[in-house]
Amino acid sequence: MNKFFASPLLASPVLASLLAAGLLFGGNVRAQDLQPIDRIAAVVDEDVILKTELDRAIANIMNQYAGRSDQLPPRDVLERQVLERLILLKIQVAQAQGTGVRVTDQEIDQAIAGIANSNKISVDQLRQQLARDGSSYNDFRSSIRDELLVQRLRQRFAQTRISVSDAEIDAALAAQANTGTQYHLAHILIALPEGATPEQIATAQKKVEGVKTLIDKGEMEFNAAAVRYSDSPNALEGGDLGWRSLDEIPAAFGELMRKMSAGQVTDPIRGPSGFQLLKLVEVRDASQSGPKLVTQFHARHILVRISDTVSEAQAKAKAETLRARIAGGAKFEDVVKESSEDLTSQTKGGDLGWFTQDEFGPEFGGAVAALADNEISQPIHSQAGYHIVQRIGSRQSDVADQSKRAQVQETIGRRKLEEEWNRYLREKRGEAFVDFRVGKGAEETTAPAEPAKPAASGG
């Protein structure tokens, strides 16, 4: 089935990074507080990161940690963490633009409306909030544009580089036959460079053992230690890795998880990226039993896309014209063949097969659910454009096995994407020309400065 809708903006890991890096909602960070310094913090290929941009992101993070500033790393380490995030963002945006990824103003407006709605405010109220915080609405739009570009780059990467075979799904299902257990994990990474020297390995090992000692003695919570000492991209989120099933965890780690209780932290583990501490936050049973009945709809559609050259008004007008032709006696399949811009379903007369109400997004699914069998809709607006839909039928279907198989496929694909995407970003980061103009400059800083207290304890 053709999934012609982009994944929701608010579910994007890139948006989460933007929020964590303080690039979106800042919380009372005044522009005038950042005005005196306006110089370059780093040069990234042909782009630059301004010192004001870096200061704003750092100030926003410090605002988020108000009253908990002891959980943050030293200022120079925090500055480098945030600057690295901004560098990676610049690299990804440039890569997206260089490979032809484009975002329209209409799509940015829709994304902003979604963000406002999720915060239970109007777009005008969002503008007012940004103004009160001293933030520019144009800068905010630019951040959303960059997020959408990176999201689409990641989607394109997944489509071209990630595949999951039936054999992999079968093997995962067989492994899960007797367990539906999922594990909520967090980690701390003490990174090592490629080709690390014995001295670098010894220093990193001493540091990770010292951090473990702090946690074991109760002198620092795990998430606070992750924020302060971890070199992982998710350090500022407390090292949270979310919920994972066993097929999403490397086999060696999976064996450890089976033997651990919630709240326990592993001893240091040496991996390809460096030394890790893993925490088992909690465990849950996610197994499914019995039938899972859902309503499915069978429909066909005609799609008129919105693009740089076709405005929303023009797309809607064209969709209304196509519906009028059908109402006037034209065959639906003929209009599909002549005018639909969904190339995958066009060859099948617009047929979308059977799908659940939420599969293609709330606007589309809700409109189809409201139709009677054989009824043809008025133009339906979605992220893709405008649709004329004919509902063919509906049914109650047991999708337990189908749903479980799809879930396993998504899980394996997500794990592969995470691994390959991180490898891709490391590769692009290594290829990029980056000239630091603040902090420690061009000096290599593969890990935050070693905490004196854990180092003294040895571990």
Order of helices and strands: HHEEHHHHHHEHHEHEEEHHHEHEEHEH
- Roughly what is the average pLDDT, rounded to an integer? 82
C-alpha Rg, in Å? 25 Å
Low-confidence stretches: 1-37, 442-459
CATH classification class of the largest domain: Mainly Alpha
Q: Briefly note the CATH topology name of the largest domain.
A: Triger factor/SurA peptide-binding fold
Query: The biggest beta sheet, please?
Result: 4 strands, antiparallel
The number of helical segments is 17
Helical residue percent? Answer: 40-55%
Distance between the termini: 55 Å
Q: Can you list the strand order of the major beta sheet?
A: 4-3-6-5
Instruction: Report the CATH superfamily of the largest domain.
Output: Porin chaperone SurA, peptide-binding domain
Name the shape in a single word. Answer: globular
Secondary structure tally: strands:
11
CATH architecture of the largest domain: Orthogonal Bundle
Strand content: 15-25%
Count structural domains: 3
Structural class: alpha+beta
Structure characterization notes:
This protein is an alpha+beta fold and 459 residues long. It folds into 3 domains: 9-161, Porin chaperone SurA, peptide-binding domain (Triger factor/SurA peptide-binding fold); 179-288 and 439-457, Chitinase A, domain 3 (Roll); 293-398, Chitinase A, domain 3 (Roll). The protein is 48% helix and 17% strand. The protein has 17 helices and 11 strands. It has helices spanning 13-20, 31-34, 51-64, 75-98, 105-118, 123-132, 137-161, 166-175, 198-216, 222-229, 251-259, 312-327, 332-339, 343-346, 362-370, 400-431, 452-457, and strands at 40-44, 47-50, 181-191, 240-245, 269-271, 274-285, 293-305, 351-356, 380-381, 385-398, 434-436. The strands form 3 sheets. Strands 4-3-6-5 form a 4-stranded antiparallel beta sheet. A hairpin with a 2-residue loop joins strand 1 (40-44) and strand 2 (47-50). Helix 1 (13-20) packs antiparallel against helix 7. It is globular. 28% of the residues are buried.
